[in-house]
Amino acid sequence: MSVAKATTVRAKSRGRDSKVTLSKYSFRVKYLRKSREILRRFNETKPWLDQLYTTFLGLRPGMTMVDVGCGTGDFTRRLATLSKGRSEVIGIDSNADGIAAAVADTNHNRLSKMISYRVGDAYKIPLDDEYADLTCCRSLLIHLTDPLKAVKEMVRVTKNHGSVAALESGRMSVFFDPNDESYSELFDQVQDALFDGIRKLEGKHIRIGDRLPGIFQAAGLTGIKAEIQADGWLYTDPRRRLADLRQQLRFDLSMLEARSKIDRKYLIAGGMTDARINAYNRQTMAKTKMLLSDDKKLRNDPSLYAASLFLVSGTKIA
Is 232 helix (H, G, I), strand (E, B) or coil? Predict the structure, then answer.
């Protein structure tokens, strides 16, 4: 899995490139649908995740839940499914196109009786005070310049003794290709520069997971707890279908090609030189195309990518 997963669409002009950010791109419907489908298929190889989410979030029948920054609603639908279809779930997102796609996908999955969606801002959630038993978000706070303000708003719409939870990426990640240690080092440098550049240019922490307990405490929550979901990607893993691996690689390649100009501004801000950026792009593209050209090489490639998702929750005590 390449760093292209976390990075930006070749725009028609240099001026347009400067206006497209990682966050804006990440919430485009086309990107969301493709990336979430790949993630969904990957998570099918990890059946224990359902138990993790159910127990950690305290899911039970009859709950009222709110998913803030729901995008196309994939996590919203997962919450509904895990509650055994006997709860009320509302997805909130500021992107009207994303909400329209979420409604369509929810109807397709026959979950519309328990799920509804509203267009709304994370800083001003369109719900009454003390509305939900659980208010949560996944991969939202990494895109916000003021995550504390958003969490305080999530607290507002949560009932007394209810829970607020967030699932966000953290700093625990690794990539290693035992056959090319120099590329592995370059990959790590690109990741660090990318996230540092985003912080410098936009004031956003992509690796916000380890900051969540402090943010939750500042928002007035108590009984704060945390778990870490650690995921590892290996092309040799027999639990993953070859077709899924190829789909992932094609997606990574398309993202690298489409987002190179926008990624470059973050990488340069993070301290990378043009020469190092060009070297990374060439090597990543060559490696990806090689793997796509030969299924045997793909299935025998030992490159390991691992990443972490921090699950943090707290209780509202008014």
Answer: strand
In this structure, the number of other CB atoms found within 10 A of the CB of residue 47 comes to 8
Cβ–Cβ contacts within 10 Å for residue 312, how many? 26
Read off the amino acid at residue 236.
T
Burial (0-12, 13-18, 19+ Cβ within 10 Å), 168: buried
**CB–CB of 168/100 below 8 Å?**
no
Gap between the Cα atoms of 132 and 186, Å rounded: 45
The first and second tokens of residue 168, run together, are 């966000």
pLDDT of residue 158 exceeding 70, the answer is: yes
List the domains of the chain with CATH numbers.
Answer: 3-315 (3.40.50.150)
E strand spans, 157-303: 158-169, 174-176, 222-234
Give tens-digit pLDDT for 224-255.
Answer: 999 999 899 999 999 999 999 999 999 999 88
- pLDDT tens across 92-123, in order? 999 999 999 999 999 999 999 999 999 999 99
Residue 175 has pLDDT above 90, yes or no: yes
Q: Residue 261's pLDDT is what?
A: 85
Q: Are strands 158-169 and 174-176 parallel, antiparallel or unpaired?
A: unpaired
Closest CA to 150 of 194, 198, 63, 212: 212
Using CA atoms, how far apart are residues 314 and 217, in angstroms rounded to an integer? Answer: 8
pTM of the predicted structure, to 2 decimals:
0.88
12-40 b/e (C-beta count within 10 Å ≥ 16 → b):
eeeeebeebbbbebbbbbebbbbbbebbe
Cα separation of 21 and 259, whole Å?
Answer: 10
Instruction: Return d(Cα 59, Cα 316) in angstroms, integer.
Output: 16
